[in-house]
Specification:
The chain is mainly β and 335 residues long. It has helices at residues 2-9, 258-262; strands at 28-29, 31-34, 49-54, 60-65, 70-75, 80-85, 89-94, 112-117, 123-127, 132-136, 143-147, 149-150, 153-154, 161-163, 169-173, 193-197, 203-207, 213-218, 224-229, 236-241, 252-256, 272-274, 280-284, 287-291, 297-302, 309-313, 318-323, 326-331. It has one domain (2-331): TolB, C-terminal domain (Neuraminidase, 6 Propeller), CATH 2.120.10. The protein has a five-stranded antiparallel sheet with strand order 1-3-28-27-26, with no helix packed on it. A five-stranded antiparallel sheet has the order 2-25-24-23-22, with no helix packed on it.
Length: 335
Amino acid sequence: MIDRRMMLAGLAAVPLLDAVGAEAKAPAIGTVRRLDPALDRIVAPGASVTRLAEGFRWAEGPVWVPGSNCLLFGDPPSNTVHRWTAAKGVEIFLRPSGLQTPVPAAIREPGLNGLALDARGRLIAADSGSRAIVRIDLATRQRETLADRFDGKRFNSPNDLCVARSGAIYFTDPTYGLAEGDDSPLREVAWCGLYRLSPDGRVDLLDRSHRRPNGVALSPDERTLYLSLSDETRPEVLAYPLGADGMIGESRQFLDMRAQHDAGRPGLPDGIKVGASGHVFATGPGGVHVCTADARLLGVIETGKAIANCAIGKGGKVLFLTSSDSLAVIPLRSS
């Protein structure tokens, strides 16, 4: 996964597509592989994936902002967060988005990666470059570091996160943002962890047993925490039960993507989102794997390239896809 992302991140940027004003005018790309008729209730037959913009080094971490009717998404290697609106297309929203100083050679991805909103509409971000979890006021762009250490040791490079209704933040900390990955001299913790940041600022290490913890998401009732493993030796999505205290129990395999990976389909398990009805949208080999809450795979939304992450937007009516160097979208009937 590191080699694949390094290759994609090194692509020369090409100009962004002209702002089209609405995704309906965008060019169609990719396809939808329908594996179960129940997918029709989520993605209408005939619905197509359309590209909204391209030219990014590695598009990541999208989040829909209802109050502004816009999508924010990052390009971590370029240290930029972009904003997309139907009226104006793609504009730069934050640059630098993550690391605010000159980027040292030891940092490969200096920008913000996973993005989410808290209950007050503030941006919560996994800052790969500053190696921290940060909060940003969308109106003023003022930023605050919420956590950058566990037991006094710097994180590797926080990658993705989700926010519980309590205000607790679940996040992952692999080594993708470091130029030498697992062998980086910047490393201070010897593992790639899954963490919980409490509203009072306490950081709890939930699981340190995985090579490549990546995307995280909560079920609507917040009794389950999903974790994607971007591990070529174990391409899976796990599900952890959550107690009333927000701490995890023993994990179980939720989705096995070995068959798609072994077939050579692009990508690995990465970002993950859960719809209001409990359907899981998990990126992985081939595209976004759409599943029921009981892990029945309904279909795969494909762009022909690796899809790093996705976001449900417009009140559940669309699914945005950050796919390699592109931003794409597909309409939803429900989520």
